[in-house]
Automatic annotation (TrEMBL):
Organism, scientific name: Actinocrispum wychmicini
Single GO term (MF): cyclic-guanylate-specific phosphodiesterase activity
Domain GGDEF residue range list: 414-551
Protein name: Diguanylate cyclase (GGDEF)-like protein
Stored SMART domains: EAL, GGDEF
Length: 563
């Protein structure tokens, strides 16, 4: 306990890989002398390990009150670290932590206990029983150190935590290490099956963030991302990058669903709120605001009326402050999208997923509320539009998605490759074997493209119609993908089929738009189809040179020019 009194705390945000927005904050202990492991070793030698660990939890909760973000919005989940040996003693935790929760006004459901190593020093039966008790008290559970510590695989299944936190050692292998990719994919599937969330620790840049999003990792944490919370431009760029990768149709904005908010002063009584709700049966609740129109509390109609409309409810509560029966408001900026709002609701208390969300302007003032059910319908409609934009044969996006990806890479100043891929003499397949056979061939071709690029985070595939496909990739990705496609012996009911691939290497500032890239790519496609057999040709903007990387060059002037 005395050691923990010399410890300060840093608060590191956890960000959504889908939207780039903060979904939680972790309290990280920073001892005045030495590291946290040295503190634990000293406490263990003194026989005070569990007591010191519990004291650190309490001090983390108290320190959160001095954090501007957390003190202003207690609905932001606070992650605190707990040793496995401590989690096995829930009665001691509650004995010391309950008064702290009461003092800070924070509810247990907004606290996530990150249970970490070592696990070998506690009996699994005791740990599981302790976790069950802590959950019964309202705490959420995360398992920390997956991939580097001694977390038993069986424990992941038995606990089914609310969050699986993967150590930074695994992240270092992304996006090129196939073993790291396989591990993240397996953990993402486990998290989905158990209604948990997968988080990666130690993320340093946006490239890793996008790779994690592609793999189904919903939350990212790291020093490199901490500044994003304080930099609106970077935050917006992250949100747009995540949205552009998965969204072919423009997502609805929060303001598309805005309703006027019913607002009362922050010092309104319960009787004031009851009268207002009686006069306005069409609203779901009331927002309590201060004299600057800043939302301070949110009152849900159903929960409030259950309290004040029962026996003796009026006598007990009518003249007292309505804020006693209120919750911290769920807040979202009016520039946010409907998808970001659903992400916010998914990361809040489960009991409040039906609450209205308060929309604020740049100054934090209340401008209205949105209803979750309407946003869900709006996003569902967007998904229907998105599905309609996919090619019905291959379920791949069309030209628009590829155009956005190319224009994004040009705007970001990235080198990339755009490739045009099609099946030679496809009309002959349809005329000879029938349209059904041709459709089967296109489906098979599309599947091979998707499967071949599954481990390549920089690849975007589009089916632009008929037997034509477009591929956008990083420079080091096109060669292995081309090998996968061109080495496959394609056939349609026994009839051999050749494929042509034309690639344009777009260096930084060598093309100005998708339109220009497609114009330069068209003659390369013609030259690829002129090469006998399955072929691959490569060109560059501003150069007449065309490299034939697969197939035999056709005789004539074109061959001489190539030489």
């Amino acid at each position: 306990m005395s050691a923990s009194q010399e410890v300060s705390f840093a608060f590191q945000p956890l960000l959504s890989t889908r939207t780039g927005r903060m979904v939680a904050v972790e309290a990280l202990a920073r001892p005045g002398q030495g590291g946290i492991h040295a503190l634990y070793r000293a406490a263990s030698r003194a026989g005070q390990l569990v007591q010191t660990d519990i004291a650190l939890v309490g001090h983390a909760l108290l320190a959160a009150e001095d954090s501007h973000t957390l003190s202003q919005d207690r609905s932001v989940p606070l992650h605190v670290n707990v040793l496995a040996a401590t989690a096995a003693r829930p009665d001691e935790i509650m004995h010391y932590i309950t008064p702290v929760l009461r003092h800070t006004g924070r509810v247990s459901s907004s606290v996530v206990l990150e249970i970490g190593t070592p696990f070998c020093q506690v009996r699994r039966k005791d740990l599981l029983a302790g976790i069950d008790k802590l959950r019964a008290e309202g705490f959420r559970i995360a398992l920390d150190g997956i991939g580097d510590g001694d977390v038993p695989l069986a424990l992941l299944a038995e606990v089914a935590p609310d969050m699986y936190k993967v150590d930074s050692h695994l992240l270092a292998g992304l996006p090129d290490d196939p073993a790291a990719l396989a591990m993240f994919e397996a953990l993402a599937q486990l998290a989905n099956r158990t209604d948990g969330r997968l988080a990666a620790v130690g993320v340093d840049n946006n490239a890793q963030l996008l790779a994690l999003s592609r793999l189904g990792v919903r939350v990212a944490q790291g020093r490199g991302l901490a500044d994003a919370v304080q930099e609106p431009e970077l935050l917006q760029a992250m949100a747009e990058a995540a949205t552009q990768r998965v969204t072919a149709v423009k997502p609805p904005r929060v303001t598309d669903f805005l309703h006027p908010a019913v607002m009362l002063p922050v010092n309104a009584t319960a009787d004031d709120v009851r009268s207002t709700l009686a006069e306005r049966p069409d609203v779901n609740g009331v927002v309590l605001v201060d004299d600057k129109w800043m939302p301070r509390y949110s009152i849900d109609r159903s929960r409030f009326l259950l309290i004040v409309a029962g026996p003796y409810g009026h006598a007990l509560h009518a003249k007292r402050a309505a804020s006693r029966h209120a919750d911290p408001p769920l807040l979202i900026d009016r520039e946010a999208t409907g998808i970001e709002l659903l992400e916010l609701v998914g990361d809040t208390d489960w009991e409040r997923t039906a609450d209205d969300v308060v929309v604020t302007d740049e100054a934090g003032r209340c401008v209205g509320v949105v209803r979750i059910t309407e946003v869900i319908r709006g996003v569902a409609d967007m998904k229907v539009e998105q599905a309609a934009a996919l090619n019905p044969l291959t379920r791949l996006p069309g030209t628009d998605a590829v155009a956005r990806e190319v224009d994004r890479r040009i705007a970001d100043g990235h080198m990339f490759v755009i490739s045009w891929l099609d099946i030679d003499s496809f009309k002959k397949v349809n005329d000879t074997m029938g349209f059904a056979t041709g459709d089967d061939l296109i489906r098979s071709f599309g599947r091979s493209l998707v499967e071949g690029s599954a481990s390549m985070p920089g690849v975007v595939v589009g089916h632009v119609g008929g037997d034509d496909f477009l591929v956008v990739s990083d420079l080091d990705e096109i060669s292995p993908l081309a090998g996968t496609l061109l080495d496959t012996p394609w056939s349609a009911e026994g009839m051999p089929v050749a494929v042509s691939l034309a690639s344009l290497i777009c260096g930084v500032r060598t093309v100005s738009s998708y339109r220009e890239a497609s114009r330069l790519l068209a003659p390369l496609k013609t030259q690829a189809k002129a090469v006998p057999g399955s072929s691959w040709v490569l060109g560059r903007p501003g150069s007449d040179r065309v490299d034939v990387l697969r197939g035999r060059s056709a005789p004539g002037p074109a061959e001489a020019a190539t030489a």
